[in-house]
């Protein structure tokens, strides 16, 4: 994750420098390889990715700490797979965005594997769907250690609030996937449902 943060910061420096010297970086013309659209997109996407990674890791730490132990096969069968999936989504989406901005993809493939063009949701729809599947896996890994607490009715408030919060977040992510190629409106009913709850109101 440190590498992601460092890369994100360096891309931010390069993006800011383009505002002063639009044609290059201290006299070196690199716009043919890393144009402004790419550096800005990667800068924002990597920020989202490292924040999300820290959030996932925190959740995977907190959930077992409530029950006192990890469920069987939690690490080998779940956490390692989730980490591998995260690497695939990060690398695949960044590469796809580069090919999309450099016009190496047609419009259809660009939407699915390249650059959707939506602010903060620049990754292709295929990578966005994989990200959603990974978040569902994370949800399952979070719920498994909490189930014994719910069954024993101990720490009831936090045991119920964690799955509720995670499900609300997945609903908001699903909202973004429902946006079509030419439709920039989100499902307002889902957002209203999540945001209208006491916890959801704090999220949104």
Report on this model:
This protein is mainly alpha-helical and 204 residues long. It has one domain (2-203). It has 8 helices and 2 strands; from the N terminus they run ααααββαααα. The protein has helices at 2-18, 36-67, 74-101, 107-113, 125-152, 156-177, 188-195, 198-203, and strands spanning 115-118, 121-123. A two-stranded antiparallel ribbon has the order 1-2. Helix 5 packs antiparallel against helix 6. The model is unreliable at 184-204 (pLDDT under 50).
The helix fraction, in percent, is over 70%
Treating each run of at least 4 consecutive H or I residues as one helix, how many helices? 8
**Main sheet strand line-up:** 1-2
Task: Tell me the number of structural domains.
Answer: 1
Shape: elongated
* SSE string: HHHHEEHHHH
Overall average residue pLDDT? 77
Number of strands: 2
Query: Structural class from helices and strands?
Result: mainly alpha
Q: Which percent range describes the beta-strand content?
A: under 5%
Tell me the Rg in angstroms: 20 Å
Largest sheet: 2 strands, antiparallel
Key terms for this structure?
2 strands; disordered C terminus; 8 helices; mainly alpha; 73% helix; two-stranded antiparallel ribbon
């Amino acid at each position: 994750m440190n590498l992601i943060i460092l890369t994100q910061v360096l891309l931010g420096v390069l993006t800011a420098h383009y505002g002063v010297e639009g044609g290059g970086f201290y006299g070196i013309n690199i716009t043919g390889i890393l144009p402004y659209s790419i550096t800005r997109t990667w800068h924002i996407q990597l920020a989202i990715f490292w924040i999300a990674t820290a959030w996932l890791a925190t959740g995977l730490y907190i959930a077992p700490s409530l029950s006192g132990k990890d469920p069987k096969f939690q690490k080998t069968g779940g956490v390692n797979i989730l980490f591998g999936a995260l690497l695939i989504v990060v690398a695949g989406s960044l590469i796809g965005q580069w090919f999309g901005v450099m016009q190496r993809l047609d419009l259809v493939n660009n939407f699915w594997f390249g650059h959707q063009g939506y602010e903060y949701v620049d990754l292709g729809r295929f990578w966005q769907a994989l990200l959603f599947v990974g978040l569902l896996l994370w949800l399952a890994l979070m719920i498994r250690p909490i189930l014994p607490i719910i069954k024993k009715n101990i720490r009831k408030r936090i045991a119920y609030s964690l799955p509720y919060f995670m499900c609300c977040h997945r609903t908001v992510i699903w909202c973004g996937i429902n946006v079509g190629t030419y439709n920039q409106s989100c499902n307002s009913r889902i957002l209203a449902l999540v945001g209208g709850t006491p916890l959801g109101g704090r999220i949104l």
